[in-house]
Design goal:
- By secondary structure, this protein is an alpha/beta fold.
- Strands 1-4-7-8-9-10-11 form a 7-stranded parallel sheet. Strands 12-13-14-19-16-17 form a 6-stranded antiparallel sheet.
- β13 and β14 form a beta hairpin.
- About 25% of the residues lie in helices and about 15% in strands.
- The chain is globular.
- α1 packs across α3 and α4 packs parallel to α6.
- Among the domains are: about 150 residues, Glycosidases (TIM Barrel), CATH 3.20.20; about 100 residues, Golgi alpha-mannosidase II (Immunoglobulin-like, Sandwich), CATH 2.60.40.1180.
Length: about 500
Amino acid sequence: MPTPQEEFQNAVLRILEAVMFENWIRFYFLTEKLDAPVEEGAEKPLFVAIPEQGMQRIRELYPELLPLAEHPFDGSWGYQVTGYFAPTSRYGTPHDFMALVDALHRAGLGVILDWVPAHFCKDSHGLIEFDGTCLYEYGDPLKWEHAGWGTRVFDFGKPEVREFLLSSAVYWLKEYHIDGLRVDAVASMLYLDYDRQGGAWRPNKDGGRENLEAIDFLRELNRAAFAADPAALMVAEESTAWPLVTYPPEQGGLGFNLKWNMGWMNDLCHYLKMDPYFRQFHHRDVTFSMVYAFSENYVLPLSHDEVVHMKGSLRGKMPGDDWRQLAGVRSFWAYMLCHPGKKLLFMGQDFGQEREWSEERELDWYLLGEKLNQGVHTYVKELLELYRKYPAMYEIDNTWDGFEWMNADDAEHSTYCFVRKGSSGKNNLLFVLNMTPMKWENYTVPVPKKKKYKLLLNSDEERFGGWGNEIPAEIMAEKKPYHYKDYSISFDLPPYGAAVFLF
């Protein structure tokens, strides 16, 4: 029989290894706190520790957890909730989850939890017709259900329902010291006709499709969250063009800090699946996001939804053999990390996960023993190091002051050139991306200043799994006007190459 110490370690290990992360956190280790004073006959104190190697790894990350509230069906990934105040027993006890959060905080990480107020499952032991009536859900058949999900919809017009949900949100923030909530399926809450075909929906009192009660609730939710924790991060998974999601309620907004940029995600996934020859005809799939990039505070998501249900992993979306797929992965990561907005990277994609993600199995860890996958892993790590080191990559994410196109129009070559700027005016970065398997010799890039452009990263280095095409360590800009700029540089741009320069 296992000792209490072993039972504790096993419980927390189940959390750390089995909980579904919207990030790259993959491994932790449990130890006893050997140096703690122990009374004679007593067991050593229970303690969760992350060794220094693990600490070094996770300092790169800000984990977002898929829903951990109790739910009956594994395949729902936690999105069909029965217990809004209960961490699922799959991974241990509430105190086990507290230990996980504490471990992450000791590592310098905040924790975002996916929280689901948009709907609930119809299991009889849940909230459905709780007292024999539609107590929590709408009683109107034209409002009470999301047929596509097979779930019921909360009646946001009832004060007691709003208080129930608000209490749940604050509970996770206060009791578990969660640092923020990602609010699922906000679009389904905002529209009365969401996923309702053939006129089977009820207009609001003004005859519109907006759910006025849900709008009021979301504003109240964010006020309550910030009252509980002024530093909370409230993120909306909102997939439509609803305005002012990340604006304060006083300005007519919903009050979130961040909104998922689903348009960016859909456009990029569409682009990546194409044969490279045809990408020239869909050049705007990559550039269009900059038309609206600063209308909200955006998160660029590559989430669980993009790597399941026959959509393929990030690598699996790419055409070609192993080399071309992983080279495409490297160029994608460069574009994502340097694009304005915060980033959400799904676990396993950082080392070139081959299969689609599934809640029924672990990630394909064995791939970390493959040279090409090791190269991708090393490359992503170095990209993240650049991200942390240079404020130009993240400091000005919400205005044009931090971004400037150098060339957004070279559809023929499927290349993209732009600059990211920091507030200091120093250490700006030039990005040059090639989205084809062709090497473009003596490729000309317009630049903003007559300066030396110092190479920081070349995605085609052999240590990243590339072919080893070289780019000069420094290139001096010349007075050769090109594409509306007075100066330019030229170099051989590798196939699927991503080059980052400091100037």
